């Protein structure tokens, strides 16, 4: 078209922008936009934000947003969703509040983007804010919006509020039921998930998404017999053919229970080719039960199917290290370097008074660092007196035991919890979010911390929620 010297219209440019996922292509289209005088066209500017956000250049998307003189609802919504999609929820939420200050009334799409940002941040306070905003402004509660709120409260650690919203819904669809069932599973309430599933079946036919939610709930709750019953009923009773994610749930269910050989045999009998999710479930189970032989089998497939995922390498390396196979662990780390696969840095986030604080292991960037470490020492002394014993298996470096203990004490989870103890109202719930799976020692320590401080502590990690109270965890140590 350009070769024929035909000037592109706004519609042509917008259609082209919607298909772009590479930065160099985005730059080419922007040059065409400039050359044809469309750079001040607001729909084009709005589309450019989404285009660069899809290309991973949220900074360029923000420059387009800032350059729009009279931002409309689409402009604000596009930038909020761009931040949420880029895992920058705090920026998205700040923009949502600014939009309100500028007198722009959000629509359902904007609200869903704001809810998405809240769910990414796991911020219970922000969830209450946006829910209250919707209620105060008399928005008509549609099924999609209410379902999004259920999902939001699930991901912010409050299954109680999620259930309240769910129970008040005048109409529920399959997604609504599946969301609530999945939420119960994530929070370790497998029996409640199954009860809800039975209720749902009286009026709706479950689909493949519903079965993923139910099987996952059975896996988190260790409900093996119930999991098999649900899996076998898929085709027999509902005509739903299992997909890779259903097989992965079953492998996870068997693996968590220590039935690793049964899980391996299950994989071999699969009528479809196992994907990375299936092998990843087996590898995760091997980490729990330290089965090196099956871990190597799972990892071999994963290194072919999911070669750029750092978690696979780290998991196998940790299995080797915990089994005393230091040379093999070092070899896996070297393999990561050769393949230029970078380990994901673990961090823990906590919200205090509408501000978010992030900690990494050994973090000393917080303004209260000295106070945090002083209080941490006191807390660790108290839980040691209650019977806490550091689990040195979770230190994978070859150092002296005393150094291993010190390394465990400064894990990001412990730093965030102590920061929460210092900066929150006594008896209030402490909520933290870990981007990776919480380590076993931190899990044990948090149980003791909840006991000696009398505080409830809610931890969201990459897999599920843990509710610590009075020295016990909602997962029943089955995770």
TrEMBL record:
What GO molecular functions are on record for this protein? RNA binding; zinc ion binding
Pfam families to which the protein is assigned, alphabetical: DYW_deaminase (PF14432), E_motif (PF20431), PPR (PF01535), PPR_2 (PF13041)
GO process terms (BP): chloroplast RNA processing; RNA modification
- Using the record's annotation, list all stretches that form the DYW domain: 387-479
Record has Transmembrane helix as a keyword: no
Q: Which UniProt keywords apply?
A: Repeat
Give start and end residues of every PPR repeat: 72-106, 173-203, 207-242
Q: What protein family is recorded?
A: Belongs to the PPR family. PCMP-H subfamily.
Q: What is this protein called?
A: DYW domain-containing protein
Instruction: Give the species.
Output: Liquidambar formosana
